[in-house]
Specification:
- The complex is a heterodimer of chains A (601) and B (394).
- In chain A, strand 4 and strand 5 form a beta hairpin.
- The two termini of chain A are 33 Å apart.
- Chain A has 601 residues and is an alpha+beta fold.
- Chain A contains 26 helices and 16 strands.
- In chain A, the strands form four sheets. Chain A has a six-stranded mixed β-sheet with strand order 2-1-6-3-4-5. In chain A, strands 8-7-12-9-10-11 form a six-stranded mixed β-sheet.
- Chain B has 394 residues and is α+β, with helices and mostly antiparallel strands.
- Helix content of chain B is 41%, strand content 16%.
- In chain B, helix 2 crosses helix 5 and helix 9 runs parallel beside helix 12.
- The chains are: A alpha+beta (601), B alpha+beta (394).
- The interface between A and B is large, with 57 and 49 residues.
- The complex binds iron/sulfur cluster.
Chain lengths: 601, 394
């Protein structure tokens, strides 16, 4: 088989057993890999509590992972999120994805619960579970030192061990599955780390075709101001966007009570680079290298972390931002959710910006000292009687782009299956970065279909496990050629079109089964009633509620959901997703059971 | 949205790519709408039904594009390989089909951003906005124009005979619009305020589009005002510049130029190296065509001139053409990017051409000088092009 290894490692942590599954080529072709394949393994179990032993943790690469396809060396982790309660997938860089493929596996599905902390080591087709009791309580640096592993490693930190719902899984020291609290899912299984080493090669059907596709992609990235321009990612890392967010009045400030941060010019990417003498680093197989490392070795914050640790907390202090970010990474915390929870707490307690207090609170999250914060902003705000102060969607804290400043972004954040996240549809690309063409950011016109189509494309990109940044320049057109060259299969465009919609719709089915509906596809009330920036140019007004609801209704129509945002039998049948539909509605109308998986409407 | 569709239809006609009123534009959100009712709409609706897109542009070509595109399509073997840099970068190749039916068109469009229907026109799509389709279709016209005249000159240079090509060439030549020679009045500078500079940029941009010196209405323009480079945004139309200019401090204190033209770094380097006050970059067709004409028979780099040409070259041997160097360089800032090759070539000169891409012209204080270079070079290139063709036997 080309591209895929055709093997998935199954690990039962309760029994301490492992086995190798060989999904047929049709299953791999249908769901591609990454997010798509993970969804396939999660769908039957998604109704279980996130910490149920039978809830799978799915770690997957994609068919292009481990080849020379640009920025395809990443890995996907998916499960039910402790923070949102819904289906959740996250991507991480580093070497994990490529090493997994080279070790002979397309993915790992972990179930069960070990009776003591364990680590999973995978080396060239073999694997072993090891006692990791001696590693509990270690932060990232100490764990890496203790492990002495020269392959790829993913692990949780003390925050997960102490029940933080914003716990992350870090990868290879500087990368991580940051969002959605998936680290807590690992801790619930008593899984401390997964270490992988592989020396095999990923078979490529047409190396010359792959080289040509790669050159097409590299030419496009070189022509992209955002990725490769003098102010772009390659030069300044993702914090390059910091100035633009401020210039567009889209920088969430003081827990979204404003969208412009006056001291932004002192905290931007240029200042960060100067002050910390940063050097670039990146994921395996990526020429963009958007990460930044300080001269003292600390990983510097990315855009979301920098913005939230400055503007959102109202602290114009780069030293603090870098320290807070580094602490989060050491303890295994998602910096975005952590900062947002701190901002929410500061607002509700009426406390002013106090860097020392913030740092202490982050430290406490690593030792179980702040159970109030550990549940995330939504739970915290509810417990204090002010749910409206949590700037979350479906329980996930919003990142550093204010939806009041771009309405496609608002819609994408509201309907995302992950919660407060717009990465699945990349609306920033056209609403802010003008690619492939600019759209009017203060209009919902056409946005319903744009978002739905982009979500479908994003679902394919996440299943190929391509870095989302690449889609600011290239598209599935170019990656389709790479896919065909790697796998030797034809018809990528048709396959992607169908797979993207099916993968995304199955997530609608999974979340609907968990009780999510239109009520959850919504933004915090503040964004509809309070302006972001007044008296500045450009002004950012509250999102017009009626227009938002109309656009969401149009999105539901395009997506094939009913007015409540719930999946329909008709659409499920059209997409051959009747088995998933039956799980959502076991008592569904007559004919569902007999409809079979092949019927088109 | 219907009004927006009509704007693109009018722009295509104004650029001479089609007859007024000919383009059909469709847009789909939760409902499908066309700018007008035509017999083609049913097929286009079928394409929408088969693809994850929200926009389609059906462009029946006007002359000389119809002659040019049909000739190239007839010999394409299924896809036209463009020779100019931008089209190679963004469209890769231009698929050709014979049949105007939804299944054939959707199949071709699922692999590329546009498709040429032999003898009928160009179909292009977008998944974000009709502007994507507009840009792709106009790029197809530009790419075919450049390839048609460029390949013909190469044919003649090699002394080969091709009666069908010769016939098509003479038809297309006879259908070319006459050259524009009168430059509009543009502000001389220096500019005291940002408003003055922006107004001058706006006027220069509109003139560049109006005189057909840029394809797809793109290109870029900048003005150094007290250490802040005002530069057109990426993907902006030069005839719609207000609100599409980014102020980028030349001291590097901000990344706000993230949405600026992909040539921002090249503009900055030119300003730093030459002291230019303004830069105007267009894609004048005959300058692009002439930049690709080379007499180095058997050159080992001939397949990759646009990145590998190492020969110091000029557009011509006489007059203004002898003042304008031709340099290789890909779009953007990659290792083979024009950011590395262009700025040094501009030193001490009023302009330079990036091979197969376009002309960059500078002015000390205002746009009159830069625009004059753009127009004069293009007209001289046009004249020189036909002179060279004649010299090889016509
Ligand atoms: S762009 Fe950045 S995040 Fe994406 S693969 Fe490259 S280095 Fe990693």
């Amino acid at each position: 088989m080309n591209g895929w290894t055709g093997k998935i490692l199954r690990v039962d942590l309760t029994r301490g057993t492992t086995s190798v599954e060989t999904p047929g080529p049709e299953l791999l072709r249908q769901w591609i890999g990454g997010r798509g394949l993970a969804g396939h393994y999660l769908d039957p179990f998604i109704h279980l509590p996130w910490d149920h032993p039978d809830m799978p943790l799915c770690l997957f690469a994609g068919p292009l992972t481990g080849t020379v396809a640009p920025s395809a060396g990443r890995a996907c982790l998916a499960s039910r999120s402790p923070l949102t309660g819904g289906f959740f997938d996250a991507q991480a860089g580093g070497r994990l994805g490529a090493q997994l493929k080279k070790a002979g596996f397309d993915g790992v599905v972990l179930t069960g619960r070990a009776d003591k902390p364990v680590g999973l080591k995978i080396v060239d087709g073999g694997c072993a579970l090891e006692d990791a009791s001696g590693l509990t309580g270690l932060n990232r640096s100490r764990l890496l030192t203790a492990l002495r592993w020269d392959g790829a490693v993913a692990a949780t930190g003390p925050a997960a061990e102490h029940g933080a719902r914003m716990a992350s899984v870090w990868v290879d020291g500087r990368h991580g599955f940051q969002r959605g609290g998936l680290g807590l899912g690992w801790a619930a299984k008593n899984l401390k780390y997964v270490a992988v080493k592989g020396t095999g090669r990923v078979a490529v059907a047409d190396p010359a075709g792959l080289k040509a596709a790669r050159e097409d992609i590299l030419r496009l990235t070189a022509a992209s101001p955002y990725l490769s321009g003098g102010h772009g990612l390659s030069r300044f890392g993702s914090c390059a966007l910091y100035d633009l967010m401020d210039a567009r009045s889209m920088m969430p400030t003081r827990n979204f009570r404003a969208s412009r941060f006056a001291p932004a010019p002192q905290c931007n990417a240029v200042q960060l680079a100067r002050r910390f003498e940063s050097a670039p680093h990146g994921c395996r197989g990526c020429h963009i290298r958007c990460g930044r490392v300080a001269a003292d070795g600390r990983t510097l914050p990315d855009l979301d972390a920098l913005s939230h640790f400055t503007a959102l907390l109202d602290v114009a202090d780069l030293d603090f931002a870098v320290q807070a970010n580094a602490l989060c990474l050491e303890l295994g915390l998602d910096p975005v959710s952590t900062a947002s929870t701190l901002a929410c707490e500061a607002e509700l307690n009426g406390a002013g910006p106090d860097p020392a207090r913030f740092l202490a609170a982050i430290g406490d999250l690593g030792s179980g000292g702040r159970p109030d914060l550990a549940q995330g902003a939504a739970a915290l705000a509810s417990s204090l009687g002010h749910p409206e102060s949590a700037m979350t969607v479906k329980g996930l804290e919003l990142p550093a782009q204010d939806p009041r400043g771009a309405y496609g972004l608002a819609l994408a954040s509201a309907v995302s299956p992950r919660g407060g996240c717009h990465l699945g549809a990349l609306p920033m690309s056209h609403e802010v970065l003008r690619k492939p063409v600019a759209t009017d950011r203060f209009s919902f016109l056409g946005k319903a279909r744009i978002i739905a189509l982009a979500e479908n494309a994003g679902a394919v990109g996440d299943s190929l496990v391509i870095c989302r940044n690449l889609f600011y320049a290239a598209s599935l057109e170019e990656y389709g050629h790479a896919f065909e060259a790697v796998t030797g299969l034809g018809g990528a465009a048709e396959l992607f079109a169908r797979a993207g919609e099916r993968i995304r719709y199955r997530e609608c089915l999974m979340n609907a089964r968990l009780g999510f509906n239109a009520t959850d596809d919504d933004l915090p009330e503040r964004l509809f009633v309070a302006p972001g920036a007044v008296g500045t140019e450009p002004g950012v007004r509250p999102i017009p509620r009626e227009a938002f609801l109309e656009a969401r209704g149009r999105y539901y129509a395009v997506r094939g959901l009913d007015a409540q945002g719930l999946p329909t039998l008709e659409k499920a049948r059209e997409l051959d997703l009747l088995e998933s539909y039956r799980r959502f509605k076991p008592e569904g109308p007559a004919g569902v059971a007999e409809g079979g998986e092949g019927g088109h409407a | 949205m219907l009004e927006e569709l009509e704007i693109y239809a009018r722009k295509l006609a104004a650029a001479g790519l089609c007859e007024p009123g000919a383009p059909v534009l469709g847009f789909l959100d939760d409902r499908l709408a066309f700018n007008r009712e035509t017999p083609e709409n049913a097929v286009l609706a079928g394409v929408f039904g088969r693809m994850g897109i929200n926009s389609l542009l059906w462009l029946p070509l006007g002359e000389p594009y119809a002659t040019i595109v049909d000739f190239l399509a007839g010999r394409s073997g299924g896809a036209i390989l463009p020779r100019d840099c931008e089209t190679r970068t963004f469209l890769h190749d231009l698929p050709v089909v014979d049949s105007f039916d939804a299944a054939t068109l959707a199949e071709a469009l699922s692999r590329r951003k546009s498709v040429i229907v032999r003898g009928r026109g160009v179909l292009a799509h977008g998944a974000v906005s009709p502007e994507q389709a507009f840009v792709s279709a106009s790029s197809v016209c530009f790419a075919c124009f450049v390839k048609f005249f460029s390949d013909y000159l190469a044919l003649k240079r090699e002394g080969r005979s091709d009666p069908a090509y010769e016939a098509a060439f003479h038809t297309a030549k006879s259908l070319l619009a006459p050259p524009r020679t009168v430059a509009p009045e543009l502000a001389e500078g220096p500019f005291e305020t940002r408003e003055q500079a922006l107004a001058a940029m706006d006027a220069a941009g509109k003139a560049t589009v109006g005189l057909g010196l840029v394809d797809s209405f793109f290109g870029n323009i900048s003005c150094n005002l007290d250490g802040v480079l005002l530069i057109s945004q990426t993907g902006s139309s030069l005839d719609e510049l207000p609100d599409c200019v980014d102020p980028c401090p030349l001291d590097g204190s901000s990344c706000a130029g993230l949405t600026a033209s992909s040539e921002l770094t090249a503009h900055q380097a030119i300003v730093a190296l030459t002291g230019a006050g303004v830069i105007l970059h267009g894609h004048p067709r005959f300058a692009v065509i002439l930049s690709m004409d080379c007499d180095a028979a058997g050159c080992p780099d001939s397949a990759r001139c646009h990145v590998d040409c190492s020969r110091p070259r000029f557009l011509g041997e006489r007059g203004i053409l002898a003042e304008i160097p031709v340099v290789p360089g890909e779009v953007g800032t990659g290792p083979r990017g024009l950011v590395n090759t262009l700025p040094p070539a501009m030193l001490g000169r009023r302009g330079a051409v990036v091979l197969g891409h376009g002309l960059f012209a500078t002015g000390r204080t205002g746009f009159r000088e830069a625009f004059d270079t753009l127009l004069t070079v293009e007209n001289a290139c046009r004249e020189e092009y036909f002179r060279r063709v004649e010299s090889f036997g016509g």
